[in-house]
Specification:
By secondary structure, the protein is of the alpha+beta class. The protein has helices at 3-14, 18-30, 42-52, 56-59, 64-74, 122-128, 223-233, 269-278; strands at 83-87, 101-106, 114-117, 153-157, 168-174, 177-185, 193-197, 212-213, 239-247, 250-257. The chain has a six-stranded mixed sheet. Strands 1-4-2-3 form a four-stranded antiparallel sheet, with no helix packed on it.
Length: 290
């Protein structure tokens, strides 16, 4: 029964105009209403982008295949995971020559990942992905870029050694310059932790509710190359998060993220203000769709 009020609440929220919906979601997440006309903090500016920014440059960032194409153009020579298959029917995977290890994910969403081994178990995959072609982030949370993405599933090569889960290196790039590095480990193993660093790998103290703070670790072997790749990929954006992997000292592309946490994840207040100061938003006239 507890789920019924939640379903009703979600249905009512979806009927609100976008700006009102986002203001309500933001207030529920952060305990305060966002400054709508003059956003100041990082999360407020994310909220402003979700409501107002309709540039094609941003619109491509909900589509993983489009991201890969952009990364290949913007940063030639960057290693990009190979796409093994894309489509809407996982039954087609039975006819694909998959490697021993592979990854299945939606092209148009986030947080859903299946690590496959060997020949696919098609009935099990049908059950697993039964709702993966749906897309709640636009109708429920107003995250516009996902409304622009192609509704597809894709299989791509798995990175790393057998049994290894690579650390996610997430570079927050403002105006073409890395300002913060977020390192997530154990995200798919149930032991998720996070550590924040400056671009020069100095630890950043921050209180992030519901996230375990990981230990300080040595910088990855490829850190200078990762920073350079992140700044190249982020050069065209006022802000974007560039996700990369270090695989044996080689830089590999993961994703470009325009709305980290949808602007709704709990955030350290001091860091929220600091990163907000790093972000110069474009004018309203600049972000309207042509």
């Amino acid at each position: 029964m507890a789920a019924v009020p939640d379903r009703l609440h979600r249905a009512l929220v979806r009927r609100l105009p976008l700006a009102a919906r986002r203001a309500l979601l933001y207030a529920e997440a952060h305990g305060r209403r966002p400054h709508l006309g003059n956003p100041r903090t990082f999360t407020e500016k994310l909220n402003w982008r979700i409501v107002h920014d309709r540039r094609p440059l941003i619109g491509q960032l909900g589509d993983k295949l489009a991201m890969k194409e952009y990364a290949a153009r913007a940063c030639p020579g960057l290693a990009i995971p190979r796409v093994l298959w894309s489509g809407t029917d996982v039954g087609e995977l039975a006819g694909v020559a998959l490697p021993e290890r592979w990854v299945l994910k939606p092209n148009h969403g986030t947080l859903r990942v299946h690590r496959g081994t060997g020949a696919p178990d098609v009935p099990a995959l049908r059950r697993l992905t039964a709702d993966w072609l749906g897309e709640p982030l636009w109708p429920e949370r107003g995250e516009w870029v996902y409304s622009q993405a192609r509704r597809l599933l894709l299989a791509e090569e798995f990175l790393g050694r057998p049994g290894e889960v690579l650390a996610d290196h997430k570079f927050l790039v403002f105006g073409g310059r890395v300002r913060l590095v977020q390192v997530d480990t154990g995200r798919l193993t149930g032991s998720h932790s996070r550590r924040l660093y400056t671009r020069d790998w100095e630890p950043v103290a921050a209180h992030e509710p519901h996230v375990v703070t990981g230990p300080v670790t040595p910088p990855p072997a490829a850190l200078p190359a990762m920073v350079a790749a992140a700044e190249t990929l982020g050069a065209a954006f006022d802000f974007v998060r560039v996700d990369l992997y270090d695989v044996g000292g080689e830089v590999w592309f993961s994703e470009l993220t325009p709305y980290p946490g949808g602007g709704l994840d709990p955030f350290d207040p001091a860091l929220d203000r600091l990163l907000g100061d790093c972000w110069t938003l474009p004018g309203r006239a600049e972000v309207r769709a042509p």
